[in-house]
Amino acid sequence: MALYSEKVMDHFRNPRNVGTIENADGIGEVGNAKCGDIMKIYLKIDNDIITDVKFETFGCGSAIASSSMATVMIKGKPVSEALTLTNKAVTEALDGLPAHKLHCSVLAEEAIKSALKDYFDKNNIPYDAALYEKCDACCHEHEGVTE
Ligand code: FES
After folding, report:
1. What is the pTM of this model?
2. From the CA of 125, how far away is ligand 1's center (Å)?
């Protein structure tokens, strides 16, 4: 079996929603200290719906494919739904990632959550802080992953 699924290769070669959004309603930037990869997500939110989303990823192919897929999955969706997007869902939508590349999809989940947090903070919208604690825990778990 090939190391990467066709979907991963497709989203890596033809990433969707690449770029930036001027006057974005929420911006999130996260990085993985181990590999040094960085992901930035821009959200445009109208009436609680994510009307546009763009990303810039300075990172590996799996991180690019994960960000691309994650943006496709949250575009047009309510904020509450985007907030529950997990790296597992992104990985499944990509038809899987090799075990040592799972942390790349965690970056996509984190970047979206971080952009949503920015939106909540800017608009004084209360949110469930536990969601962010859970994310921290999951990232620590992945810090132990070695290449
Ligand atoms: Fe760094 Fe994939 S995100 S190796």
Report:
1. 0.89
2. 32
